[in-house]
């Protein structure tokens, strides 16, 4: 009969150390990957879900977009940009920072406090621009703007605001593309640039709407 031998204790110990090392390596890789993912989301790119119909037809309810959080730190928002931002606290109750708001004009000044809610709208005017609204369309510095991305509405309560306002320094005026179904700067005023979170640059869900903005 062949002689039975005991397992070499050094071999068993080396095997255990190798398994422990592999586990530690795996945990480290997962931790680094999670850290990178959280870092990217916190500082570079953040996903955002569309909560309402205010950006139809550009963005539908439930659609997901990616938001660039870097560009706003190194540059200014421009007309036409779709932005995620914190609105003034007046947006929670449709309150303008000027009471009463000027008759026949959009709200010219926001409340001083910032809301905790995230909004997504389009920049339609920047500091120094003179703005009025007719039949849901933007009149900028006296010229009607070409806005093929909008769903216009000639009859909503805030779709005809012919009195011109001037956008304050370091502020942007935000409007939803669905002009008759959007609570926006027309009611609660321009948004300080410091409250902008980032620019929406692509949509990744649903699959049939994947692409750039």
Quick description:
By secondary structure, this protein is α+β, with helices and mostly antiparallel strands.
Structural class: alpha+beta
Give the overall silhouette.
globular
The SSE order reads HEEHEEEEEEEHEEE
% residues in beta strands: 25-35%
> CATH homologous superfamily of the largest domain, by name?
Umud Fragment, subunit A
Q: How many domain regions?
A: 2
Number of strands: 12
Q: Give the biggest beta sheet.
A: 8 strands, antiparallel
Sequence stretches where pLDDT stays below 50 over 5 or more residues:
1-7, 31-42
Please report the number of helical segments.
3
Would you identify the CATH architecture of the largest domain?
A: Ribbon
CATH topology heading of the largest domain: Umud Fragment, subunit A
Helicity range: 10-25%
Mean pLDDT metric: 85
């Amino acid at each position: 009969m062949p002689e039975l031998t005991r397992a070499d204790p050094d071999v068993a110990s080396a095997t255990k150390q190798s398994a422990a090392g592999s586990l530690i390596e795996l945990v480290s890789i997962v931790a680094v990957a999670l850290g990178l993912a959280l870092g990217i989301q916190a500082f570079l790119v953040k996903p955002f879900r569309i909560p309402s119909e205010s950006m139809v037809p550009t963005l539908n309810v439930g659609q997901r977009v990616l938001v660039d959080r870097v560009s706003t730190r190194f540059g200014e928002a421009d007309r036409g940009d779709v932005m995620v931002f914190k609105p003034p606290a007046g947006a929670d109750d449709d309150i303008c920072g000027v009471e009463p708001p000027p008759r026949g004009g959009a709200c010219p000044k926001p409340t001083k406090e910032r809301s905790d809610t995230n909004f997504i709208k389009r920049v339609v005017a920047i500091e120094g621009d003179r703005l009025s609204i007719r039949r849901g369309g933007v009149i900028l510095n006296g010229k009607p703007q070409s806005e093929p991305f909008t769903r216009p509405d000639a009859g909503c309560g805030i779709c005809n605001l012919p009195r011109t306002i001037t956008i304050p320094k370091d502020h942007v005026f935000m409007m939803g593309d669905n002009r008759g179904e959007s609570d926006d700067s027309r009611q609660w005023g321009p948004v300080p640039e410091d409250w902008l979170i980032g620019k929406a640059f692509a949509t990744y869900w649903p699959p049939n709407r994947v692409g750039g903005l």
